[in-house]
């Protein structure tokens, strides 16, 4: 079993790579984004990312991040989902992850393996909480999503974006549903929430984050953030400030 713990600066990026075994990455402080060919998964506070063996993926870290990496042997990977995902972190799971990625030596033979089995059991009983932003292989849709990735606050309508992509609003609306499984509005909101998490983690105010990510006022941003993340931007930042991550 391989584990690592390292403090990383805001904006730190790891280029695409693969692993022969599974990998769990937990930001004990900060926020983590994992990108594969299937899209991007974001793990804000109290969530851990899971990447199965063989998936090419990259990571980006937001805010000063206490990154905890834990390798899952192939014989245990079959217990978990077969696709990249994000899971909620219970108090028990958090303490197990910190213990396995810390500097505490293995006092009794096999203790780390037994604790890893607890981690897998916890993940098997935890529903996925994926802040997943899917991507399409359709060139027209990729043109539209590329424009929004470059400027998440861009106020353009789907019809206006369609002119740049050479596709009608109706065609693009259909593609969002069939290719990505969500509406244009849902996809753009999730994209903006991804960027908002990065800004909030790095200390930007709620109001400034709302404006930077394309919301017309803080109230609409707070409502959207709460519906996607499950807490308000203010409580999310408060959790970051009180995080018991190790120094």
UniProtKB/TrEMBL annotation:
Transmembrane segments: none
Pfam families linked to this entry: AraC_binding (PF02311), HTH_18 (PF12833)
A GO term, aspect molecular function: sequence-specific DNA binding
Keywords recorded for this protein, A-Z: DNA-binding, Repressor, Transcription, Transcription regulation
Domain called HTH araC/xylS-type: residue spans: 142-239
Domain of life: Bacteria
Gene3D superfamilies: Homeodomain-like, Jelly Rolls
Name this protein carries in UniProt: HTH-type transcriptional regulator RipA
């Amino acid at each position: 079993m391989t584990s690592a713990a390292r403090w990383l600066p805001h904006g730190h990026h790891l280029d695409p790579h693969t692993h022969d075994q599974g990998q769990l990455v937990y930001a004990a402080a900060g926020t983590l984004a994992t990108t594969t060919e299937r899209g991007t998964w974001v793990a804000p506070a109290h969530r851990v990312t899971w990447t199965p063996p063989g998936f090419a993926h990259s990571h980006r870290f937001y805010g000063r991040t206490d990154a905890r990496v834990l390798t899952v042997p192939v014989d245990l990977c079959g217990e978990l989902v077969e696709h990249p995902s994000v899971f909620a972190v219970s108090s028990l799971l958090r303490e197990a992850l910190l213990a396995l990625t810390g500097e505490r030596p293995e006092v009794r033979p096999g203790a780390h393996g037994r604790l890893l089995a607890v981690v897998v059991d916890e993940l098997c009983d935890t529903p996925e909480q994926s802040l997943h932003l899917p991507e399409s292989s359709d060139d027209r849709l990729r043109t539209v999503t590329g424009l929004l990735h470059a400027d998440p606050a861009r106020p353009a309508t789907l019809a206006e974006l369609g002119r740049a992509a050479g596709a009608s609003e109706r065609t693009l609306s259909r593609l969002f549903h069939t290719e990505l499984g969500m509406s244009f509005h849902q996809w753009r909101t999730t994209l903006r929430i991804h960027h908002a998490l990065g800004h909030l983690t790095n200390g930007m105010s709620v109001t400034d984050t709302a404006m930077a990510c394309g919301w017309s006022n803080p109230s609409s941003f707070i409502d959207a953030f709460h519906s996607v993340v499950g807490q308000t931007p203010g409580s999310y930042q408060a959790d970051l400030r009180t995080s018991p991550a190790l120094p």
